[in-house]
């Protein structure tokens, strides 16, 4: 582990991170959350990040809009393709947003050694992700969507739909 | 229409078509959750070519209400 990463992860008091992002972006991050120090991370004004949330943004751009609410236990990881979360989104507890995939073309090479791909994730504004939702790399979720708890979003969803299941499918058009 | 509607409700709620009757409602049917309600409305709209408003959707509480909504829609078409 690089010295810089080691210091950031283990020696930097969490309250320092909270204070830094409060001053820089005007957002509220729980001192119990683990948000990486990164120039590639942008958090909007009025956004709230709950306890035990882990946010990784060292290898890709991560943009979180204004007034986004990220509940406890979420995991958000941005890689080369980036992750964008629009304004006013509600992200329920234990949601995972994973902006990369492992390569697996070669059977004789361990998957972990084949490298990663990253297309990126785009979540529109005013989207509500229920508890336990998983959003996979390459997904675009339109504005105003609602995803029911424990759904797995693996493909594009148009604006203003309610989607459910694994893989998440449209079950209703909001009106 | 009633048979078609009963089959549609049965399919959406995961019940047998024989279990569907006009008095079956969100109050007396455990399978009729808020999520299943939306699935049922979407199936209804696609099958019968209707489009309900949010207030109509929330007012529907039973199979009889579904029949009434379809009847109103048929009459408005004439």
Provide structural commentary:
The complex is a heterodimer of chains A (175) and B (78). Chain A has 175 residues and is mostly beta strands. Chain A has helices at residues 3-11, 14-25; strands spanning 28-29, 34-35, 41-43, 48-49, 54-56, 62-64, 69-70, 75-77, 83-85, 90-91, 96-98, 101-102, 116-117, 121-123, 128-129, 134-135, 140-141, 146-147, 152-153, 161-164, 169-173. In chain A, strands 1-4-7-10-15-18-20-21 form an eight-stranded mixed beta sheet. In chain A, strands 2-5-8-11-16-19 form a six-stranded parallel beta sheet, with no helix packed on it. In chain A, strands 3-6-9-14-17 form a five-stranded parallel beta sheet, with no helix packed on it. In chain A, a hairpin with a 4-residue loop joins β20 (161-164) and β21 (169-173). Chain A is globular. The mean pLDDT of chain A is 94. By secondary structure, chain B is an all-alpha fold. Chain B is 62% helix and 0% strand. Chain B contains four helices and no strands. The model of chain B has no long low-confidence stretch (mean pLDDT 91). Classes of the chains: A mainly beta (175), B mainly alpha (78).
């Amino acid at each position: 582990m690089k010295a810089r990463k080691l210091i950031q992860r283990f020696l930097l008091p969490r309250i320092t991170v909270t204070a830094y992002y409060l001053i820089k972006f005007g957002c509220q991050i729980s001192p119990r959350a683990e948000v990486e120090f990164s120039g590639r991370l942008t958090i909007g004004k009025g956004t709230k990040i709950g306890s035990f949330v882990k946010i990784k943004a060292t290898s890709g751009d991560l943009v979180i809009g204004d007034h986004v609410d990220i509940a406890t236990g979420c995991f958000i990881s941005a890689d080369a393709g980036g992750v964008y979360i629009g304004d006013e989104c509600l992200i329920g507890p234990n949601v995972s947003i994973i902006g990369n995939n492992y390569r697996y073309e070669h059977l004789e090479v361990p998957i972990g050694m084949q490298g990663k791909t990253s297309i990126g994730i785009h979540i529109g504004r005013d989207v509500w992700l229920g508890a336990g939702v998983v959003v996979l790399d390459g997904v675009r979720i339109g504005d105003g969507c609602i995803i029911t708890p424990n759904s797995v979003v693996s493909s594009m969803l148009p604006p203003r739909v309610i989607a459910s299941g694994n893989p998440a499918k449209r079950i209703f058009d909001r009106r | 229409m009633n048979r078609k509607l009963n089959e549609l409700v049965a399919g959406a709620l995961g019940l047998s078509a024989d279990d569907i009757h006009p008095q079956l409602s969100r109050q007396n049917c455990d399978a009729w959750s808020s999520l299943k309600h939306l699935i049922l409305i979407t199936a209804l709209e696609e099958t019968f070519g209707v489009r309900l408003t949010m207030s109509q959707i929330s007012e529907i509480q039973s199979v009889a209400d579904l029949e009434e909504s379809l009847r109103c829609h048929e009459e408005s078409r004439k």
